[in-house]
């Protein structure tokens, strides 16, 4: 595919990549950001008068998290924008309106509010077909990311970019904050043979980029799954609309933006960090309750057979930097343990910068295996295949299960972080 290069001269904040355009958040230079000044990409686009969309047929990949600061849906903003012809909507996991629970089938339908066709990108079809994209000139993507490789929205983005590259359709990403901030990178990259919808790119588990930055990276280094770092034969014509006022040191609570849960078990801005700290362990169905089905999704590790005090003492003895534990007892409302009294620990990040958030779950698994040999993680649960996919390698499970010591997997889990930090640095749009 011939790559169109667009040059916009004399714009200080512009970054140019082959085949990719970044429209600067503030042509006169970015202002120093303070709380309540972060403006998401959809508002920046509207403020400019919808450049790149006027006079074109537009498709939109979004969900309820695609809103401006007044909670107006990107669907409605584009549908009512002058000279913008929004022609189709595309639903990721949970659907365009967020009415499908985790893992549920998203079906093609018609959006009641706009009358537009809605095509499912979660289910039998994850990569949009030529028929789904017929008549679309520009595909817009606007979804709040969580910053974790296993979250399927970024996989949907990559598949949309692949399909659009093949058909010569432009892609526009409306950028939003990474709720984990833009400085934390953790976890090993995906290995050959373990690329999947929950591990689609050769990136660390926490990748430290906004969704716009990630789009630039995967577009320039290779759209094909598993080919990150190798040149792909084609790229889409990509434009990123950056935010105004966002800094890499910001977590979502610092932005002043309203948080609209991107999926049912990410109800709060802090939930993204907890997802990364417990979600991998949570793939081992039947091992530990991690709070899904209760008011603390991803924030606890508990079971009926656990002694909360003993588990806390064992974890406290590790003196994990930036992490503290307390004992907890609760009854889940739903799931396999609904109505049962569970006990265990709730954990907190007392120093987010120092904490290795993805490693919390591995330390808990080590402690549980030590205290309860009859309940070792890979011997007492199903979902091992999904665990390996989310980890991006079978090494974590195979090596860990030999003695259930985190020290045995520490170097492997951390081995790719420095290299990825160097690779990703040139795609950063914010300081």
Describe it.
The chain is α/β, with parallel strands linked by helices and 431 residues long. Helix content is 25%, strand content 13%. The chain is built from 11 helices and 12 strands. The protein has helices spanning 41-48, 74-79, 152-167, 211-221, 271-282, 308-316, 360-371, 384-391, 395-403, 407-414, 417-425; strands at 16-17, 20-22, 57-62, 85-91, 109-110, 117-120, 138-142, 170-174, 238-241, 300-303, 323-330, 342-349. The strands form 2 sheets. It has a 9-stranded mixed β-sheet. A 3-stranded antiparallel β-sheet has the order 10-12-11, with helices on one face. Helix 4 links the parallel strand 8 and strand 9. It is globular and about 65 Å long. The two termini are 33 Å apart.
Q: What structural keywords apply?
A:
431 residues, alpha/beta, nine-stranded mixed sheet, three-stranded antiparallel sheet, 12 strands, globular, disordered N terminus
List the helices and strands and how they pair.
Layout: E1 16-17, E2 20-22, H1 41-48, E3 57-62, H2 74-79, E4 85-91, E5 109-110, E6 117-120, E7 138-142, H3 152-167, E8 170-174, H4 211-221, E9 238-241, H5 271-282, E10 300-303, H6 308-316, E11 323-330, E12 342-349, H7 360-371, H8 384-391, H9 395-403, H10 407-414, H11 417-425
Question: How do you describe this structure in short?
Answer:
It contains eleven helices and twelve strands. By secondary structure, it is an alpha/beta fold.
């Amino acid at each position: 595919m011939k790559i169109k290069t667009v040059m916009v001269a004399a714009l200080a904040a512009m970054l140019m990549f082959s085949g990719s355009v970044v429209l600067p958040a503030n042509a006169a230079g970015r202002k120093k950001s303070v709380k309540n000044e972060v403006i998401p990409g959809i508002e920046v686009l509207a403020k400019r008068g919808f450049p790149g969309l006027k006079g074109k047929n537009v498709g939109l990949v979004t969900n309820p998290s695609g809103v401006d600061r007044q909670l107006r849906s990107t669907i409605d903003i584009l549908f009512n924008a002058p000279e913008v012809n929004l022609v189709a909507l595309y639903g990721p996991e949970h659907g365009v309106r967020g009415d499908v629970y985790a893992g549920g089938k998203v079906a093609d339908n018609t959006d009641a509010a706009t009358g537009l066709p809605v095509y499912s990108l979660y289910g039998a079809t994850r990569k949009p077909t030529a028929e789904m994209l017929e008549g679309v000139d520009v595909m817009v993507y606007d979804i709040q990311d969580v910053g974790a490789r296993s979250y399927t929205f970024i996989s949907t983005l990559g598949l949309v970019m692949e399909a659009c590259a093949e058909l010569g359709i432009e892609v526009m990403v409306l950028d939003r904050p990474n709720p984990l901030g833009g400085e934390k990178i953790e976890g090993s990259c995906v290995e050959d043979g373990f690329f999947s919808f929950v591990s689609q790119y050769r990136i660390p588990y926490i990748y430290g980029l906004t969704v716009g930055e990630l789009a630039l990276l995967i577009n320039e280094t290779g759209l094909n799954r598993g080919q990150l770092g190798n040149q792909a034969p084609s790229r889409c014509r990509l434009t990123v609309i950056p935010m105004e006022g966002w800094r890499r040191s910001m977590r979502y609570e610092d932005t002043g933006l309203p948080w609209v849960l991107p999926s049912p078990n990410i109800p709060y801005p802090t939930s993204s960090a907890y997802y990364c700290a417990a979600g991998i362990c949570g793939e081992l169905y039947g091992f530990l309750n991690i709070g899904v089905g209760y008011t603390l999704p991803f924030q606890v590790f508990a079971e009926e057979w656990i002694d909360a005090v003993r588990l806390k003492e064992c974890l406290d003895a590790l003196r994990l930097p930036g992490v503290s534990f307390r004992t907890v007892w609760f009854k889940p409302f739903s799931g396999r343990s609904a109505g049962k009294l569970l006990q265990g620990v709730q954990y907190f990040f007392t120093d987010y910068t120092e904490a290795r958030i993805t490693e919390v779950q591995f330390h808990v698994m080590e402690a549980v295996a030590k205290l309860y040999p009859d309940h070792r993680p890979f011997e007492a649960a199903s979902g091992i295949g999904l665990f390996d996919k989310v980890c991006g390698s079978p090494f974590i499970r195979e090596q860990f299960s030999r003695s259930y010591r985190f020290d045995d997997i520490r170097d492997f889990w951390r081995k790719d972080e420095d290299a990825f930090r160097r690779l990703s640095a040139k795609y950063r749009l914010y300081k």
